[in-house]
């Protein structure tokens, strides 16, 4: 793809909390970090737990567990086993469970305390031989006197996985104290960035606890916090203008006002020639050397960088307000976020942008090596062999093809209905009934379903629509 690669939701498991989850776990305790030595030492407790049937506990492979402890009512240590049935865990994690006294069954406590430590590579040089081969969202990245670590993919804190509903509980309430003697600034996602070597962070609102601490500058503008940045006052005003333009566009399109300040993070990079971004509301982390660093991305104003920025901000709607509850849901989020980003860029920058991108993408879909199923026939990760092309390009082209057939107003109405409903978008009945309600014509609706959302001729039908 031409735009900056986005690894927002990984292909191995779903993100965020399920619709209708009644109880959000609380993560509390202490974390000690050294950004110079690449060490993490954690004493963390999960409480208010309602463990799902056949749960797994995921934790980063680089973290070594000292013990697990349960309080009921007195505290006692519990044994734990590897869970080899968790077949779709990410490459970064190991899965565990606590066995019960009954052979073959699991123990379901309402609280678990975890003590564990880890040591990771530290990258403070730009010489390739002293850097990593790759960088990615789930990397526990000690880089240039900072630690960048997400929650969704890295599992630096223990996360519960529900295999029946394909749900990972990566968004939590928290009350965590971070200690780092060689740090100057700290940010835990959902809190306010702060200066200091020790900070207690609290949130009663569920957030993905992305952690970014170290020695970096904090800037604040009208619309954003900017971490590890060095913008001039003039540039900050330009960033506010850009953010407000995107906020206004998305608010008018969705009829839902964008809330909260963005937290833009320049996350550094541990490998050469890498550039990507990911969203952990309200934080957007940009990873890469120029021209893929935060400063260049926000100041270049070309179609590619604007697409990246608008895409990430669009995840406020598809990915935050409309939270994922399955692998499929996280996949669909990317298509709708890219659709909104393309709409913005096409209006503000290049009136031929959408058409040019889709025509080019259709050539990729025709590659015999690209395997996929139509959106309503898609049920599991094995239904495509190229998640990135499917998520960012195929789905986006399908959505614009539907818009081209039914018109912009009906497409806008469909997206509003999707955002207003309580059901997940991956609920195919909800997906179809909202589309049918927006179209208000059974014949056209059935035609859209047959041509673009089911069967094996979706690419042929798109090509005919856009090139003939």
Describe this entry's structure for a reader:
This protein is an alpha+beta fold. The chain has two domains: 26-214, Sandwich (Immunoglobulin-like); 224-467, Neutral Protease, domain 2 (Orthogonal Bundle), CATH 1.10.390. 31% of the residues lie in helices and 25% in strands. It contains ten helices and 23 strands. The protein has helices spanning 233-254, 294-300, 303-314, 327-348, 353-365, 387-406, 408-420, 428-439, 442-453, 458-467, and strands spanning 26-34, 39-47, 56-60, 63-71, 75-78, 81-82, 93-97, 112-119, 122-123, 141-143, 146-149, 159-162, 167-169, 172-179, 185-188, 194-195, 198-207, 211-214, 218-220, 224-227, 262-266, 275-280, 283-288. The strands form four sheets. It has a seven-stranded mixed β-sheet with strand order 5-4-8-2-1-14-17, with no helix packed on it. The protein has a six-stranded mixed β-sheet with strand order 9-10-11-18-15-16, with no helix packed on it. A five-stranded antiparallel β-sheet has the order 6-7-3-12-13, with no helix packed on it. Strand 15 and strand 16 (194-195) form a beta hairpin. Helix 4 crosses helix 6 (387-406). The longest helix has 22 residues, at 233-254. It is globular and about 70 Å long. Mean pLDDT is 91; it is low at 1-21.
């Amino acid at each position: 793809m031409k735009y900056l690669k986005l690894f927002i939701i990984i292909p191995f498991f779903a993100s965020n909390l399920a619709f209708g989850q009644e109880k959000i776990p609380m993560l509390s305790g202490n974390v000690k970090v050294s950004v110079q030595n690449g060490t993490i030492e954690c004493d963390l407790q999960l409480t208010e737990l309602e463990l799902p049937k056949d749960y797994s506990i995921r934790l980063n492979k680089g973290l070594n567990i000292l013990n697990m402890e349960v309080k009921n009512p007195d505290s006692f240590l519990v044994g734990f086993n590897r869970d080899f049935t968790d077949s779709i865990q990410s490459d970064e994690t190991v899965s565990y469970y606590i066995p019960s006294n009954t052979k073959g069954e699991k123990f379901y406590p309402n609280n678990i305390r975890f003590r564990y430590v880890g040591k990771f590579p530290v990258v403070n040089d730009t010489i390739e031989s002293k850097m990593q081969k790759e960088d990615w969202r789930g990397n526990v990245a000690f880089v240039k006197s900072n630690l960048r670590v997400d929650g969704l993919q890295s599992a630096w804190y223990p996360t519960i996985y529900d295999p029946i509903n394909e749900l990972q509980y990566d968004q939590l309430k928290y009350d965590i104290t971070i200690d780092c003697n060689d740090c100057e600034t700290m940010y835990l996602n959902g809190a306010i960035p702060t200066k200091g070597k020790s900070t207690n962070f609290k949130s009663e609102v569920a957030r993905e606890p992305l952690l970014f601490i170290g020695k970096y500058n904090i800037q604040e503008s009208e619309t954003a916090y900017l971490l590890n940045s060095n913008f001039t006052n003039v540039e900050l005003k330009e960033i506010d203008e850009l953010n407000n333009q995107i906020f206004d566009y998305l608010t008018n399109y969705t009829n839902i006002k964008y809330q909260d300040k963005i937290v833009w993070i320049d996350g550094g990079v541990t490998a050469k020639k890498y550039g990507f971004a990911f969203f952990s509301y309200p934080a957007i982390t940009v990873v890469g050397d120029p021209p893929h660093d935060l400063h260049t991305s926000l100041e270049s104003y070309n179609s590619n960088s604007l697409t990246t920025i608008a895409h990430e901000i669009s995840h406020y709607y598809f990915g935050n307000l409309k939270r994922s509850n399955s692998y499929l849901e996280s996949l669909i989020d990317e298509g709708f976020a890219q659709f909104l980003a393309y709409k913005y860029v096409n209006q503000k920058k290049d009136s031929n942008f959408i058409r040019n991108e889709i025509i080019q993408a259709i050539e990729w879909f025709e590659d015999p090596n690209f395997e996929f199923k139509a959106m309503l026939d898609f049920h599991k990760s094995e239904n495509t062999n190229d998640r990135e092309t499917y998520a960012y390009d195929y789905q986006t082209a399908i959505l614009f093809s539907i818009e081209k057939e039914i018109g912009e107003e009906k497409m806008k109405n469909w997206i509003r209905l999707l955002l207003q409903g309580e059901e997940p978008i991956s609920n195919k009945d909800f997906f179809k009934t909202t589309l049918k309600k927006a179209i208000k014509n059974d014949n056209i609706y059935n035609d859209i379903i047959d041509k673009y959302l089911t069967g094996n001729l979706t690419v042929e039908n798109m090509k005919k629509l856009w090139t003939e």
